[in-house]
C-alpha cells in the first residue's frame, strides 16, 4: 500500500494542475520536472510553463488519477486529463507520473504522456 503522505502530496499536485499552479511547498528546493517530450526543468520553470498552458484553456487541465503503485521512494500514478482550449480544441491525454520523494517532499516528477498530442494541441512559444 502506498505511503499515505506521499500519496496525498502527489494527488494534491495533480489536482493543482487544473488551477494552473502548484504550491512550491510540495517540492524540495532542487526538484525537477521531467517530461518525455523533451523537458527537464527546475520546478519553478515548469510552473511557468504550466501557467502558459493554463492560459490557453477555458477551465484548466483537469487530471483524473487512476491506478497508484509504490516502489521505495517512488510513487507511480496512471492518469487521464481533459481540457477545453479557448480556440475550441479539446485536449485529452493519458499519463504515467513517477513522483520521487526525498525527506517527504517531491524531488523529481517524471511525466510520460503523448507528446505529439501536447504539441499538436497547445501553441507553445
Characterization of this structure:
The protein is α+β, with helices and mostly antiparallel strands and about 120 residues long. About 25% of the residues lie in helices and about 45% in strands. It contains 3 helices and 6 strands. The radius of gyration is 14 Å and the shape is globular. The model has no long low-confidence stretch (mean pLDDT about 95).
**Helical/strand content category:** alpha+beta
- Helix proportion of residues, in percent? 25-40%
Q: What is the average of the pLDDT values?
A: 94
In whole angstroms, how far apart are the ends? 41 Å
Q: What is the 3D form?
A: globular
- List the helices and strands in order: HEEHEEEEH
Radius of gyration: 14 Å
Unreliable stretches (pLDDT < 50, length at least 5) are: none
Structural key phrases:
45% strand, 125 residues, 6 strands, alpha+beta, globular, six-stranded mixed β-sheet
SSE layout and pairing:
Layout: H1 4-17, E1 27-35, E2 39-42, H2 43-55, E3 62-71, E4 74-84, E5 90-102, E6 105-113, H3 115-121
Question: What's this model, at a glance?
Answer:
The protein has 125 residues and is of the alpha+beta class.
